[in-house]
Design goal:
57% helix, four-stranded mixed beta sheet, alpha+beta
Length: 182
């Protein structure tokens, strides 16, 4: 889980903002993102604090609290969701108006039962062939996008295949990695 990304997101920032504001390398922030909060260096905490304009102690307390509550990444738009996919977040909450777009996108994909039927009937070869066709289509895709948003939606549709989607009691969508089911 990427506590740093979740913390920065909740404060309206990204790792790039920390880099831009403080000069701390993005490579360092990427490696820190995979560690426990207790192993963050003082330099890293100071950089985060400067970026979110809070004291170091306050930032550390909030990070530890997030780690304790087992925080989940929240996506409110396509950029947030693509960021979560790129970081291979184990679970992602989709909230706000963006939820209806994702629900519509999910309706265009095969259901779990349909997918399971195809996988069993083909003894697993359908998955391999489908992935091959997807990669070939991506390779030969010469489509020019009128809007950047169309390209993002297509990227989301492609990456959503790795996730399962459930609706919780509050009506929020939760995406979680399929491989966590096995």
């Amino acid at each position: 889980m990427s506590i740093l990304d979740i913390y920065l997101q909740r404060n309206g920032k990204k790792r790039y903002d920390v880099f831009k504001e403080t000069g701390v390398s993005q490579q360092l922030l990427s490696s820190v993102n995979k560690k426990n909060v207790s192993s963050y260096s003082v330099k890293t905490i100071q950089a985060i604090a400067k970026t979110v304009q809070k004291s170091e102690g306050h930032v550390l307390n909030e990070l530890l609290k997030l780690e304790k509550e087992n925080a989940t990444f929240e996506a409110f738009n396509s950029d947030d969701l693509l960021l979560a996919f790129d970081h291979k977040e184990p679970s992602i909450f989709i909230r706000g108006e963006f939820k209806t777009e994702i629900e519509q996108l999910a309706e265009t994909q095969l259901s779990e039962t349909e997918t399971l039927g195809i996988e069993l009937g083909s003894e697993g070869t359908a998955n391999i062939l489908a992935e091959g066709f997807n990669q070939l289509a991506k390779l030969f895709n010469t489509k020019k996008y009128e809007h950047d948003e169309q390209k993002k939606i297509e990227q989301i549709a492609s990456k959503m295949r790795l996730y399962k989607m459930i609706k919780n009691s509050k009506g929020e969508l939760l995406l979680y990695l399929r491989q966590l089911d096995y």
